[in-house]
Specification:
Blueprint: H1 6-36, H2 40-55, H3 60-63, H4 66-127, H5 145-193, H6 200-230, E1 237-240, H7 241-251, H8 253-258, E2 262-267, E3 271-274, H9 276-292, E4 299-304, E5 310-314, H10 348-358, E6 362-367, E7 373-378
Parallel strand pairs: 2-4
Antiparallel strand pairs: 1-3, 4-5, 5-7, 6-7
């Protein structure tokens, strides 16, 4: 059961307070009219006495005794008094109900007008994402409490945007600066291992260092791609997603064969607007992950169509449903955090999600019925 909205509550308060004020006004008006109207018995006695004195005869001789005349006149005046008060009450009640209905209508409209800035703030907050902090309210109006709230919210967004941009620049710059020493380190290890007089122990150590260096290079390259996609796209070109996917499948055929995994494709023509390099990296990460986290004799199914634009399914170990959302976070894998798996850097699905968002789409995943994972990428048409 959902609660009442603020607009409904304000309207109820407006209507209720107006109805209460109207009831008080009707009661006061009723009491004033009641006290103003003369007493029937007194008016009747005064009128009969005045008639006797004026004509020098008893008015009662016409209709009977003076007491009868007083009672008849008093009854007529009492009936008139009751009719007047009843008419006043009925008319006031009808006017009160009609005016209360108008008050509720105008209260609803005024509450909506007063709360409109809050709806703008809520809409802006819902549209915010880590990579899209360019939304602002820019509320115009008098310097009241709502204007102050909107300006405070805009100021907070400015600070958040600056913080995120600074973080992205740092990641990109740090990743770029680390590529050179890693490349130098790899070259020195390869030169040392090329020496024919190197001992088996040193060769084993060099092989291990090369694997570690290769993993570090993959992680640095992934961070650079992630930082680039998080900054958004500066230019877009039409990209045939089916052709990019076919190229990636051909490039990973050797790895799939070595892992004993069969790759099946169904590629329909699909054109999207975006960056061909980033889109190729998105497809590569999905296909490589599907091959890597699989089982011998397993399968990978890659499909390109209208909606979703890309879907990659694979067999493999069972993935708990509660672990699926964390797979899109950097350095996260099923059953481990930053350590325990040296095959990849743990940035694959993070890059997929970031690239999809940079192209105006999104990526989602769900576990397969008999193991493995199904990842779908939805992209807007070109």
């Amino acid at each position: 059961m959902t609660g009442l909205s603020v607009r409904t509550k304000l309207t109820a308060w407006y209507g209720g307070l107006f109805l209460l004020a109207g009831l008080v006004l009707v009661v006061i008006n009723y009491l004033l009219v009641q006290s103003t109207l003369p007493d029937p018995a007194r008016v009747a006695s005064t009128t009969v006495g005045s008639a006797d004195a004026l004509y020098g005869v008893q008015a009662g001789t016409v209709v009977g005794s003076p007491g009868v005349a007083v009672r008849l006149l008093s009854g007529s005046l009492d009936e008139y008094r009751s009719s007047t008060l009843s008419t006043l009450v009925v008319g006031s009640a009808i006017a009160l109900v009609a005016t209360a209905a108008l008050a509720v209508l105008f209260g609803w409209l005024m509450a909506g007008r007063a709360l409109r800035p809050l709806h703008d703030i809520t809409s802006a907050a819902r549209r915010l994402e880590a990579g899209k902090l360019d939304r602002r309210i820019n509320l115009e109006g008098p310097p009241d409490e709502l204007k102050e709230l909107a300006d405070t919210f805009d100021g907070m967004l400015d600070r958040l945007a600056e913080s995120f941009d600074s973080q992205k620049r740092f990641v990109a710059n740090a990743s770029h600066e680390l590529r050179t020493p890693l490349a130098v380190q790899r070259t020195l290890i390869e030169v040392a291992m090329a020496d024919p007089e190197v001992t088996p122990e040193l060769r084993k150590l060099g092989t291990h260092l090369l694997h570690t260096n290769e993993r570090s290079e993959r992680m640095i390259e992934g961070l650079l791609v992630l930082a680039r996609s998080d900054r958004g796209l500066h230019a877009r070109t039409p990209v045939r997603l089916d052709e990019v996917t076919a190229s990636v499948v051909r490039a990973t055929a050797a790895a799939a064969s070595a892992a004993g995994v069969e790759v099946e494709t169904r590629l329909r023509p699909r054109t999207v607007s975006g960056d061909p390099v980033l889109l190729e990296r998105l497809v590569t990460n999905l296909v490589v992950n599907a091959i890597t986290y699989n089982a011998a004799g397993g399968w990978v199914y890659v499909e390109v169509r209208g909606d979703p634009a890309l879907e990659v399914r694979n067999s493999g170990p069972v993935v708990p449903p509660e672990a699926v959302p964390s797979l899109f976070e950097p350095f996260r894998r099923v059953g481990s955090e930053r350590t325990g798996d040296t095959r990849n850097a743990g940035l694959g699905l993070s890059i997929v999600r970031s690239v999809a968002q940079a192209h105006g789409g999104y990526a989602e995943a769900q576990p397969g019925r008999r193991g493995g994972l199904t990842v779908t990428v939805r992209l807007p048409p070109s």
